Amino acid sequence: xxxxxxxxxxxxxxxxxxxxxxxxxxxxxxxxxxxxxxxxxxxxxxxxxxxxxxxxxxxxxxxxxxxxxxxxxxxxxxxxxxxxxxxxxxxxxxxxxxxxxxxxxxxxxxxxxxxxxxxxxxxxxxxxxxxxxxxxxxxxxxxxxxxxxxxxxxxxxxxxxxxxxxxxxxxxxxxxxxxxxxxxxxxxxxxxxxxxx
Length: 197
What we know:
Distance between the termini: 17 Å
Shape: globular
Number of helices: 7
């Protein structure tokens, strides 16, 4: 992100913001509500367009990439994903085309405790389980960068640690960007922390 600015109406959310995220590292983005964390992730993910500045992924300007091209470079797990239709967990994970599925999909499913839930309908899951299915859907895609918005928000300590351990494995070859309010407990597990005021 190079000198990126973004406003909502008359409110400036990001002003001349620059940051670099690399493959092979996990970066934690923290800050109070309204500081621009989710906005930053949505800008990188191509869901929003900056007012000024430039965002690129592996040297390719996001603004010049189609949605399909962006999807080959990065994967996004939103803070809240709802499933309106009664697909099973296995069917949801099959939303990712075979040619775009990551080789670490089994590690993701096992680490997130989804193996025993594969036949269960997502409409019958708890909030924490849905969050893990959403996270698995994002992490199951073969991309270079994973953008995760509040992946720990509905998790107990056991699954928080499981997710941290999973991300530690994945970031050996991929870039992982995580937004979280729980910085005090999590910062030590990340290579860097970016705090938005």
